[in-house]
Amino acid sequence: MTDTTAAPPAAPEDGAPGETGIRIIAQFVRDFSFESPHAPDSLRAGGAPPAIDMGVEMNARGRPDGLFEVDLKLSARATRDEQTVFHVEVMYGGLFHISGVPEADLEPVLLIECPRFLFPYARRLISDVTTEGGFPPFLIDPIDFAGVYAARKAQAEGVVVGNA
User: Fold this and answer.
1) Alpha carbon distance 62, 23 (integer Å)
2) What is the pLDDT of residue 48?
3) Between 145-156 and 114-132, two packed helices, what is the crossing angle to 10 degrees?
4) Would you say the pTM of this structure is higher than 0.70?
């Protein structure tokens, strides 16, 4: 990553609205953790497949320079017989320039579209570290960020999703 700061593109001079766009300025690992507390015993073949508990969080915040920081946090805990096989957690971040998006639509863009850009990289990190930890690569299925956003929005508003 460079130390230079990219300036947002200038607005059109004729007063016409600018193009809608999302530009990734930078991507980075903010936090990363892998634990395999029962290795090498947990690496033995056989036994029941582990149960996997997944977590997904998205956060966004504006910056004084007009850019936005978006964090995608993915966590996976594999357990077998009440013991942790592995626990991995990554917070992968991105710095975005958003243009031409109305204020009312900004939150969904930041919490749906931006995480879609970050997801493949965070997914690859988790796959690589589980492989390096001695396990088969753990490949997270694609995530419906729009569904996650809608469910969290409904939960925050006290609405029960799926019931009439």
Assistant:
1) 15
2) 80
3) 110
4) yes
